[in-house]
User: Fold this.
Amino acid sequence: MWLLKKDGNWHPIDASELVTANRVTPESFEGDLEHIASTGQVVIINFAGPNDGRGFSFAKRLKRYAPSLKLIASGKLTPDHARLCFQTGFDEVLLSDELVARQSASAWKSALENSVDRTYLEDKINSNLPSIWAERAQEINR
Amino acid sequence: MAKKVKTDQIFVLTANDLSSGDIVFWSGESRWAQEITSAHVIAANEQDTFTEIASASESANEVVGAYLTPVERKNSDLQPVELRERRRVAGPSIAYGSPVLPQKIAA
Amino acid sequence: MYVYDKHDQTFVEARSQEFRDQVKRRLAGELSEDEFKPMRLMNGLYLQLHAYMLRVAIPYGTLSSDQMRKLAYLAEKYDRGYGHFTTRQNIQYNWPKLVDVPDMLDELAKVQMHAIQTSGNCIRNVTSDPFAGVAGDEWIDPRPTAELLRQWSSLHPEFAYLPRKFKFAVTGAAEDRAALKFHDIGLKVKPGADSEPLFEIWVGGGQGRTPRIAVLFEDKVELVDLLPKLDSMLRVYNLHGRRDNKYKARIKILIAEYGLENYRSDVEEDLALQSLEPFAPAVAEYHRIAKDFERTDVPPRSVSSPKQEPQSPGLTAWIKQNVTSHKIAGYGVVSISLKPKGGIPGDATAEQMYALADLAERFSLSELRITHRQNIVLPYVPASDLAELYEELVVHGLAEDNVGLLSDIIACPGLDYCALATARSIPVAQTLSTRLRERESREDLSGLTLNISGCINACGHHHAASIGILGLNRAETENYQITLGGSSNDNASVGEILGPGFSQEEIPAAVDRILDFYQASKQPDENFNQVYQRLGKSAFKEAVYVAA
Ligand code: SF4
Assistant:
């Protein structure tokens, strides 16, 4: 297994390192945040399919509720989901060997580099460039 | 085509060209043709073979959305059985993009 | 009009670049069709019945002459010389090649346009009142709100994979010209204290298989609270909307099954968790945007033209039917019909688009609008220029004087283009428009609408018309169902199915019988839906089927 970080870099990880992580699936999204937050410091949120965006909203809520939690996205993801993961509160993306073999590590890095990773409300990933609205506000105040 | 079909039902394999989007038909000579007249006629018991050809061509990124569609012979021409497929083969039924004739200014 | 600053410009260019990379990876085989499909859809690229189709956003239906010229250029260079304006104020090109689409997007970016989120299960192009900024009955221009929503929702990381597509409409006038209550969320803007905007939020409207009229979610929402609230509304929908059945995935079903009160309390709970910081600039943004929409360059015009030239009957009829009063004296709002007798609703050739761009430049301060009824509006035409404009429109086949009449038919592309269609809609519209134009020369058919969809998805808004026609496939033959009594205005209603369907050939006679019965039954000052409500379905049914 591999972990993708915000800077587009990878490192291999042994499954045993994640045994203590709290695994959350879409079904348990209904579960209360307090319970999830008290169950461990690392939460792996599973995406049921490439078109199922619940994980993004769930991560956003959970991260707000407990900012110190480490959130890892896993499941059926494509390289173009990387931006969405990092902008919704995930710290890392967990990918299976099979996924990496098919899509290649460079595809993930390239998708991250080529994606519009700064929006009107979201800061640029992995840089200190603020969101477009925040920058405009600074320009007005200058 | 998971539906139950008559054993004498015939099919053609159709798809869209990946880069142009044009409608294409499997011609049986390892290539795709633009016209249904060049389509290879597939018997009901050959469907699996051609479904494999379809996936292989999709994986090779030649075409998208390949599928078998039932056809019948009409005066030696091949015509799809389904309404949607008949329209797909025939193209839009309307004169499109033609300049609208200027109307006369009412005197 | 809103003018991009460097950030907006960089943003659309970067999005175009991103899509170019995705297309490159697709053509190289690094992306499978399954992986690429959601990416192309999120950029408005479909695979239709015959070819790819690119849908370009015209945010809130407002565009400049330069932008219209670019749309014409794309039609000419990359398509077959025409485009189709849709009920969501967008334009569709029916024949682009995948390899050309990145270049088309680059061309669009040059004039501050894009195809972002014109498809896919995300927040779609925001629609609005085509008379925004010029209507006499307007309280507040809805477009600054619509542009604020465009910026908030563009590439919003959380809402790229919602359970289903999500449509917003915004209005700010007494008359609803944007079918507000048929949207997932409709915002009605009214002026509050210090003329700051206050919002009514309507939720859960929609057409398709289960038509629903939106319900009021909240009244008098202040600008500062608007986006955090909408963000929470979308988040709750994203988490709880159904994903097991695409026909039950729209927010209207969540509201119906989960209940408005439960939905509201989940939204409140989520709001309590929100970090408001990212939204802090929104109020200043709104006012920055609103400044762009204030036209300070409208020269004053005298109210009565100096010399009264004799008018041709054609001009008089066209002014009466297609020109609406303007909030500024001496100006008119001109609607240009894309429904010529026997024509294809919403289609315009490249030549016509070039002509429209030029005419807008000459007569309308270079501004145009697209309406959800698939027509074009020139919003700033001096009354003294109407005659000259009319003559130009005649030359380009754009002078049909039927805006707001029954022959001003909405029709979706149907089975002539659409991969999801069950029957054709365009030929039905063409036949009916020819017949109805003849009837209209003899009788008054204003205040009724006729809309046609080629399948249950209802892009042709058939549920929302006085007379709706839905094309179906019955045993591989086209068959058409008629609905009566729908409306998309403030008293929005969903049409009722009249009875068994008709063949394409039978439809004109059936519509004639409906109209004959309506004309014979109506009392003075009664409109079609009032007659329908008074007499009921059975009376109409009898008139249509028994007489047959
Ligand atoms: S209503 Fe159906 S046929 Fe018409 S455009 Fe929409 S999906 Fe296509």
User: Anything to note?
Assistant: The two ends of chain A are 47 Å apart (CA to CA). Strands of chain A lie at 2-4, 10-12, 22-24, 42-47, 70-75, 92-95. The first helix of chain A runs from residue 33 to 37. The longest strand of chain A covers residues 42-47.
